[in-house]
């Protein structure tokens, strides 16, 4: 059921979502307080005032990096001589295991449209784009309808609400590349170029879309902005119910072998145990949890012993991973960690833009080694080679964060489950150290040079 217009609501992003009834139209959205934040911003506040409120609220980016939104906005040039500026919503959402933005766009399109308008007013952008994953056909239809309704009501377009500020908003559907989740690759794609990342600096806030100052924010991040403006930074900070120092709520989710995979808006700092055992109904078939990714495929695996940690940016980082998008993927006790990682690395290899050598050639090489180990055909030294790859493709070695992100699940899998990798190693008879070879379970031990020679002859 849709809630009443309570200013102290605890789930601002999803309080009006009713998947059975579908999204609210403009009239229904306004009846529930929609576009009040936009009217307040334009009528009562200066753009810098809106920036200050978002900064004070400690809203951190919900796309994965967790960078403070207010600080990001403060880096953009302001004033009458700043010229043309752009606001871009990153709605590509290609991270495996992540589907929170889809829910918000399909079920609350006017919320995002209003959020884009308020954010654009804060940075004085004249044009905005929602860069949408091409497969999100329903989201595209509903967003375009919401934009058309808002434009007809004078909430978008020229001289919004009778004032001097104008803002045009468009939906741009991408061709379906994971790399477009990187903001500069997204900007290149939006310009009609190949989706390769750009060198930074300059950062998009200074030279982004068509060389002009540009802010790129995630769907969930932007969707918080109208609520912060209406209810204040203190209210937003208290939404976490004291669970963490990070403010607000978070769209958390669970995928993988859980009984009830899904997505829920919960206080920031909710534990992974609550997500899995309370909201997702526990592991399917009564299986035990082996490992879990805290926020998409490009994060390090954590163990069952980490389930009680608050799901916030700093706590998960201290545990050796990243919260990322906050939608966890669970791996059951009877699943092969090698197969799981191989599957992820195949995705990353396929989605590499090919711009730099370590990523273009290193990821397929990683997949080749993992596939051999998975099939019980790994060679002595393969695990060590994979460990080297996690460093060679790590931070600072590639043009963007694509390959370093791909290495996170691999490096943690080797760290926690090395024995599963060793099972897939067969003795290399040309090895200088045959005594240390490890065979797949069930095969006879081979520990001498003569035994190795006999096996080779057979």
Automatic annotation (TrEMBL):
Keywords: 4Fe-4S, Flavoprotein, FMN, Iron, Iron-sulfur, Metal-binding, NAD, Oxidoreductase, Quinone, Translocase. It catalyses: a quinone + NADH + 5 H(+)(in) = a quinol + NAD(+) + 4 H(+)(out). GO terms for molecular function: 4 iron, 4 sulfur cluster binding; FMN binding; metal ion binding; NAD binding; NADH dehydrogenase (ubiquinone) activity; oxidoreductase activity; quinone binding. Residues 338-383 form the NADH-ubiquinone oxidoreductase 51kDa subunit iron-sulphur binding domain. Its EC number is 7.1.1.-. The keyword Transmembrane does not apply. Its cofactor is [4Fe-4S] cluster; FMN. Pfam families: Complex1_51K, NADH_4Fe-4S. It comes from the Bacteria. Belongs to the complex I 51 kDa subunit family. NDH-1 shuttles electrons from NADH, via FMN and iron-sulfur (Fe-S) centers, to quinones in the respiratory chain. Composed of 13 different subunits. Subunits NuoCD, E, F, and G constitute the peripheral sector of the complex. This is NADH-quinone oxidoreductase subunit F. It comes from Solimonas fluminis. The lineage of its organism: Bacteria, Pseudomonadati, Pseudomonadota, Gammaproteobacteria, Nevskiales.
């Amino acid at each position: 059921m849709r809630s009443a217009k309570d200013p102290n609501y605890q789930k601002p992003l999803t309080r009006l979502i009713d998947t059975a009834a579908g999204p609210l139209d403009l009239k229904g959205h306004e009846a529930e307080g929609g576009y009040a934040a936009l009217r307040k911003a334009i009528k009562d506040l200066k753009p810098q005032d809106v920036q200050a409120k978002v900064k004070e609220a400690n809203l951190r980016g919900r796309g994965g990096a967790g960078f403070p939104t207010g600080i990001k906005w403060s880096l953009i040039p302001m004033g009458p001589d700043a010229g043309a500026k752009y606001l871009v919503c990153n709605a590509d959402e290609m991270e495996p295991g992540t589907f929170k933005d889809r829910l918000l766009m399909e079920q609350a399109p006017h919320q995002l449209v209003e959020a884009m308008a308020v954010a654009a007013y804060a940075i004085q952008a004249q044009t905005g784009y929602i860069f949408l994953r091409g497969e999100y056909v329903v989201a595209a239809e509903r967003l375009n309808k919401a934009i058309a309704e808002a434009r007809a009501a004078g909430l978008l377009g020229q001289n919004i609400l009778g004032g001097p500020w104008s803002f045009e908003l468009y939906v741009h559907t991408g061709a379906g590349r994971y790399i477009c989740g990187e903001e500069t690759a997204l900007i290149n794609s939006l310009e009609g170029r190949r989706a390769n990342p750009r060198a930074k600096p300059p950062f998009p806030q200074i030279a982004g879309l068509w060389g002009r100052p540009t802010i790129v924010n995630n769907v969930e991040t932007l969707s918080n902005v109208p609520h912060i403006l209406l209810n204040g930074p203190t209210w937003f900070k208290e939404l976490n119910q004291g669970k963490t120092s990070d403010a607000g709520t978070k769209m958390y989710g669970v995928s993988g072998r859980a009984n009830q995979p899904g997505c829920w808006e919960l206080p920031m700092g909710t534990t992974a145990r609550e997500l899995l055992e309370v909201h997702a109904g526990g592991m399917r078939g009564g299986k035990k949890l082996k490992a879990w990714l805290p926020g998409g495929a490009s994060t390090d695996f954590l163990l069952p012993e980490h389930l009680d940690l608050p799901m916030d940016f700093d706590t998960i980082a201290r545990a050796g991973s990243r919260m990322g998008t906050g939608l966890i993927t669970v791996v059951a006790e009877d699943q092969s960690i090698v197969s799981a990682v191989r599957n992820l690395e195949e995705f990353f290899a396929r989605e590499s833009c090919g711009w730099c050598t370590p990523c273009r050639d290193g990821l397929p090489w990683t997949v080749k080694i993992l596939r051999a180990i998975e099939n019980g055909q790994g060679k002595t030294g393969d695990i060590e080679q994979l460990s080297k790859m996690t460093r060679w493709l790590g931070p600072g070695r590639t043009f963007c964060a694509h390959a370093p992100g791909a290495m996170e699940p691999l490096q943690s899998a080797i760290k926690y489950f090395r024995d599963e990798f060793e099972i897939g190693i067969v003795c290399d008879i040309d090895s200088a150290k045959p005594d240390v070879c490890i065979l797949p379970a069930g095969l006879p031990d081979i520990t001498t040079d003569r035994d190795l020679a006999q096996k080779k002859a057979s």
